[in-house]
């Protein structure tokens, strides 16, 4: 009786919550439609217009209801001043929604997203997004143009730095974590941010890895590789998406009715709004599918882009097209409804202004800096550690030679899209090592060369320093501006003369620890054999140096795993782990199979790879039930034992292969991962539960389904090695 009563109370509570939310939504719809019916045509297209920055002309346009959104306006005071014009001086008082690229932090800068994804820690990544939201919102920002959820299989593309790498399953988990972190429990919470999944869609598939370039992929690849992350963001409740610059098979993403209307707003029922990327509607003229901005505007609007960022294409000139029947006003009404709906959900009508007093206690709060350190540590990937030279033995070491153009650089750690991040907040590797080793160990620093130019004038000075040391720590890689937007590289080796400096120092026969700072996978084949250890430290944000020092001296045992493949050569690109088998899979002993004659086909470091200062042993993989119905779950477990002398975290990864399908299937696909903490000597049984529905794909008729048949499952510490087992899906009941 008691349990029934408890159940009924719980049920009533859940129904009340759902009903309450539904009533709120209905209330918002009434307000939206009421306001829409009061708006002039000019005010409608005004809501659909977004400009960057501000000036007297824009302020007058705000007064006239001709601007609905601004981006790149900084500071609570300035944002409140502009909001006051919209709310108190325009005819209908519709508040502005103010956006900014808060990608990996507002002022407390976290690791760049590609680095953070290497932590595989969705909990910490969500927390970092929450912090970024608090700091940005306290400064009067309502909306971030993040998370960037573009799959990238080509490291030449500079924007690989902004996402979670090459895998749809991991990328979807990261997308969800960031949307929930930014948006919190309610968009009306003044210290959360409206999120924006971008760049819709397949922007990372650019031919040649050249930014903004042509994308030409099959619908199956679009749906199985590029769309899942956006679907994860939409399922997590993301309020906006941003349409991309690129074309997809001849149709630009910002004029693509198939992706925007059929899939996003149709199949997925997305009820937020779509903002164009910067002038991506206006660029339809350059793409060659619109003769002028007016036609571009019609194409963007018809496709489903609701707001025009800096394109000046949604204008009063459209009124004549509505009058002559060329353009349906319902398209405009739908766009305006979507924008107003979000503004109501943000609570901007009730609370248009931010309390200007809170930013000073929130921004760069010590707790935020601590989280930045934690995420920076977990983002570091140990790629090589011969003779266990790391961690540095601070008791035996007398002198460290710290060499390289990035060893004491305060800019690179902020990475691309650094928002309000400031160099003064950054801890460099040099500072981190000094903080850590104090006067215990002598650290002699010499820059040796620059990142990009070809000057060798400081080589000798660096070599002299090296000769006085027991060990060399070289900090090299890319400056922050070498990745991110419009930063594609055709050559992925260490830039400038850095490799030459490294080779010259290697000839001294001192052991070299290479610490990489980069925004993308690099090709390291010309230096890998010359160094004893390689630590992938990316651009880790303001706590970069402390995190690197913690790893180098062993105060933190590295646990990061690559989320993007490191090729041996740029000639291998595109290269990714979840590739197809082909009819002639690579067989080194058979000439007539898929390979290069001048290079192994395997990557230098594969997806999911990362070492630890301890060792993890996998044993006893067990499939609970190896004959499954499509409504079942695959339940599989494995024992993982820490057989080393140090505690450590291991990212246990689960991959599945569909052995035979009605279309070709990847040789493996990530379908589960768990971060597991293991003390030295400890063993844990790690269990995965994978719904068979997770194995769906687009079959030969483009039906999204699971097909009965044989499957193999592999569990391990990276995408190449692990324990395997088999199971069958026996029917679709
Ligand atoms: C840029 C980027 C986009 C960014 C927008 C606003 O061109 O492509 O990611 O959010 O403009 O800065």
Structural features, described:
By secondary structure, this protein is of the alpha/beta class. The radius of gyration is 27 Å and the shape is globular. The relative contact order is 0.10. The chain has 20 helices and 26 strands. The chain has a 6-stranded mixed beta sheet, with helices on both faces. A 5-stranded parallel beta sheet has the order 4-3-2-1-10. Strands 18-26-25-20-21 form a 5-stranded mixed beta sheet. The mean pLDDT is 97. The structure holds alpha-D-glucopyranose (GLC).
Provide a brief overview of the structure:
Among the domains are: 42-98, no CATH class; 367-572, Glycoside hydrolase family 3 C-terminal domain (Rossmann fold); 616-731, Immunoglobulins (Immunoglobulin-like, Sandwich), CATH 2.60.40.10. Helix content is 30%, strand content 19%.
Head-to-tail CA distance between termini? 36 Å
Bound molecules: alpha-D-glucopyranose
- CATH homologous superfamily identity of one domain: Glycoside hydrolase family 3 C-terminal domain
Main sheet overview: 6 strands, mixed
Strand neighbour order, sheet with most strands: 11-16-15-14-12-13
How many H/I helices? 20
Poorly predicted runs of 5 or more residues: none
Shape: globular
Fraction of residues in β-strands: 15-25%
Give the C-alpha Rg: 27 Å
Mean pLDDT level = 97
DSSP strand count: 26
Helix/strand layout:
Elements: H1 2-36, H2 41-47, E1 49-52, H3 56-63, E2 69-71, H4 76-89, E3 97-100, H5 113-117, H6 122-138, E4 143-144, H7 168-183, E5 196-200, H8 219-226, H9 228-235, E6 240-243, E7 247-248, E8 251-252, H10 257-267, E9 273-276, H11 284-287, H12 293-303, E10 308-309, H13 318-323, H14 329-345, H15 359-362, H16 366-379, E11 381-385, E12 399-403, H17 429-437, E13 442-446, H18 459-467, E14 471-477, H19 498-506, E15 512-517, E16 533-536, H20 544-553, E17 616-623, E18 627-629, E19 633-642, E20 648-658, E21 669-678, E22 683-691, E23 697-698, E24 704-705, E25 709-716, E26 723-731
Parallel strand pairs: 1-2, 1-10, 2-3, 3-4, 5-6, 6-9, 12-13, 12-14, 14-15, 15-16, 18-26
Antiparallel strand pairs: 7-8, 11-16, 17-19, 19-22, 20-21, 20-25, 23-24, 25-26
Helix pairs in contact: 1-14, 6-7, 6-16, 7-9, 16-20, 17-20
Bound molecules: alpha-D-glucopyranose.
Alpha-D-glucopyranose binds next to loops.
């Amino acid at each position: 009786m008691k349990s029934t009563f408890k159940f009924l109370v719980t049920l009533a509570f859940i129904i009340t919550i759902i009903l309450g939310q539904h009533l709120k939504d209905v209330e918002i719809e009434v307000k939206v439609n009421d306001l829409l019916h009061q708006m002039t045509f000019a005010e409608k297209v005004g809501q659909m217009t977004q400009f960057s920055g501000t000036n007297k002309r824009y302020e007058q346009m705000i007064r006239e209801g001709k601007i609905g959104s601004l981006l790149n306006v900084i500071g609570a005071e300035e944002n409140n001043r502009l909001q006051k014009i919209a709310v108190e001086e325009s005819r209908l008082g519709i508040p502005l929604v103010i956006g900014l690229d808060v990608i990996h932090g507002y002022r407390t800068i976290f690791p760049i997203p590609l680095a953070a994804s290497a932590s595989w820690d969705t909990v910490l990544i969500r927390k970092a997004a929450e912090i970024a939201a608090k700091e940005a919102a306290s400064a009067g920002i309502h909306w971030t143009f993040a998370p960037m959820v573009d799959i990238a299989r080509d490291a030449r593309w500079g924007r690989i730095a902004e996402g979670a790498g090459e895998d749809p399953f991991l990328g979807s988990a990261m997308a969800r974590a960031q949307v929930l972190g930014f948006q919190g429990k309610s968009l009306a919470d003044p210290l959360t941010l409206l999120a924006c999944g971008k760049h819709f869609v397949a922007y990372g598939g650019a031919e040649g890895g050249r930014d903004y370039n042509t994308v030409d992929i099959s619908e199956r690849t679009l749906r199985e590789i590029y769309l899942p992350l956006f679907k994860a963001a939409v399922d997590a409740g993301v309020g906006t998406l941003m349409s991309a610059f690129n074309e997809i098979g001849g149709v630009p993403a910002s004029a693509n009715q198939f992706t925007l209307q059929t899939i996003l707003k149709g199949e997925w029922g997305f009820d937020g709004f779509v903002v164009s990327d910067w002038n991506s509607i206006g660029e339809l003229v350059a793409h060659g599918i619109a003769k002028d901005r007016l036609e571009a505007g019609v194409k963007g609007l018809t496709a489903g882009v609701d707001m025009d960022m800096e394109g000046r294409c949604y204008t009063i000139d459209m009124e004549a097209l509505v009058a002559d029947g060329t353009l349906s006003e319902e398209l405009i009404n739908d766009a305006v409804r979507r924008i107003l709906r979000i503004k109501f959900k943000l609570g901007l009508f009730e609370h248009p202004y931010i309390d200007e007093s809170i930013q000073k206690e929130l921004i760069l709060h010590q707790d935020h800096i601590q989280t930045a350190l934690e995420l920076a540590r977990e983002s570091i990937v140990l790629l090589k550690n011969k003779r266990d030279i790391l961690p540095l033995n601070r008791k035996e070491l007398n002198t460290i030679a710290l060499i390289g153009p990035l060893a004491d650089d305060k800019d690179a750690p902020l990475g691309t899209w650094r928002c309000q991040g400031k160099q003064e907040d950054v801890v460099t590797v040099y500072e981190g090592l000094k903080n850590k080793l104090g006067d215990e160990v002598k650290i002699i620093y010499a820059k040796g060369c620059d990142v990009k130019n070809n000057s060798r004038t400081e080589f000798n000075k660096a070599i002299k320093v090296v000769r006085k040391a027991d060990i060399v720590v070289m900090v090299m890689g890319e400056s922050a501006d070498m990745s991110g937007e419009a930063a594609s590289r055709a050559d992925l080796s260490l830039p400038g003369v850095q490799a030459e400096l490294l080779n010259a120092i290697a000839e001294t026969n001192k052991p070299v620890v290479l610490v990489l700072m980069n925004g993308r996978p690099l090709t390291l084949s010309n230096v890998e054999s010359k160094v004893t250890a390689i630590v992938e430290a990316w651009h880790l944000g303001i706590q970069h140096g402390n995190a690197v020092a913690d790893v180098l001296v062993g105060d933190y045992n590295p646990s990061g795993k690559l989320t993007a493949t490191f090729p041996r050569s740029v000639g291998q690109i595109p290269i990714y782990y979840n590739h197809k088998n082909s009819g002639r899979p690579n067989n080194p002993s058979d000439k007539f199979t898929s390979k290069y004659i001048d290079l192994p086909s395997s990557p230098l470091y594969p997806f999911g790879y990362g070492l630890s200062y301890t060792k993890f042993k996998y044993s006893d993989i067990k499939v609970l039930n190896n004959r499954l119905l499509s409504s079942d779950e695959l339940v599989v477990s494995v024992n993982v034992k820490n057989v080393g002398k140090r505690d450590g975290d291991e990212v246990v990864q689960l991959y599945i292969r569909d052995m035979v399908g009605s279309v070709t299937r990847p040789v493996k696909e990530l379908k589960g991962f768990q971060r597991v903490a293991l003390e030295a000597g400890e063993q844990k049984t790690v269990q995965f539960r994978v719904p068979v529905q997770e194995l769906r794909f687009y079959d030969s008729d483009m039906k999204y389904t699971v097909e009965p048949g044989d499957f193999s499952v592999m569990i391990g510490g990276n995408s190449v090695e692990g324990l395997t087992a088999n199971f069958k899906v026996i029917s679709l009941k």
